[in-house]
Write a structure and sequence with these properties.
five-stranded mixed β-sheet; two-stranded antiparallel ribbon; alpha+beta
């Protein structure tokens, strides 16, 4: 009798979990669709703002007072930034859509990124070090974007007059891979370590350009790989970003 009651309780709890997962999935899809719609629909009036402000400056520049030209310039730059934010939001909402699981070499991905980011690396005289990077099962395009964001951030948030060094390594665990991306940059204060992964959160708005979506994208990519991401950092000493990738992804069949 007690066993039957226990089984019924377990079944009810499992059903509640399944129902909650279904609701969360539906709400997430609604949120992604909302973000896509907002980003897409707002781009049209922004294009008009950019076009008319540019036309006004080019056609009536000589008759517009200096202060008026300054205002129009602010309209242009603000609308350009808004367009960039919308593009970033649209990209964020589409992360993981239509993803395909495959077996790929992380080492080869980093080599590709060295070529893709060659101008950024050369301009900043950065050094990328890596060894022992494995082959894993995951979503290659998303994983590449994850590494690209972390490497680009490591170079972007550099200390003045100091050689940039970025180290990438991996540790194999029983159920997941643990990756580390370490830099010797400006570091992150402990009070900001959770906030940096939230959408549109920027620590250095006036000093460094950006939309505040890079690390939010990283978090979302790691989550679709069944993992977690966190950071250890000492201000003015550097940061290490850790993230895990599950070895047992529940997704589409592997395309090898």
């Amino acid at each position: 009798m007690q066993q039957r009651i226990l089984n019924e309780t377990v079944n009810q709890d499992n059903q509640k979990i399944l129902n909650t997962q279904k609701v969360l999935k539906e709400k997430n899809e609604e949120l992604n669709q909302f973000a896509h719609t907002i980003a897409h629909d707002l781009k049209e009036p922004l294009r008009s703002m950019q076009a008319f402000s540019h036309l006004t400056i080019s056609k009536y520049k000589d008759s517009i007072p200096e202060k008026g030209q300054e205002f129009l310039h602010h309209i242009q730059t603000s609308s350009e930034r808004m367009a960039l934010l919308l593009d970033s939001l649209l990209e964020y909402s589409q992360l993981g859509k239509g993803k395909q699981k495959s077996v790929f070499s992380v080492k080869e991905l980093v080599k590709e990124l060295e070529k893709d980011l060659s101008q950024l690396i050369q301009e900043n005289e950065a050094i990328i070090r890596y060894n022992g990077l494995p082959k894993i099962i995951g979503y290659e395009l998303e994983f590449k974007q994850l590494l690209q964001n972390l490497i680009a951030n490591a170079i972007k948030f550099r200390k003045d007059n100091e050689e940039i060094e970025v180290k990438i390594k991996a540790n194999e665990k029983d159920k997941h891979w643990e990756f580390l991306v370490t830099d010797n940059g400006i570091g992150i204060d402990s009070k900001h370590r959770e906030k940096i992964f939230t959408i549109f959160h920027r620590l250095h708005k006036n000093k460094f350009p950006g939309t505040g979506l890079g690390l939010a994208n990283c978090k979302k990519i790691v989550e679709i790989h069944g993992g977690d991401i966190w950071v250890d950092s000492i201000p003015e000493k550097g940061s290490t970003f850790y993230f895990t990738i599950s070895k047992n992804l529940e997704a589409a069949p592997i395309n090898e």
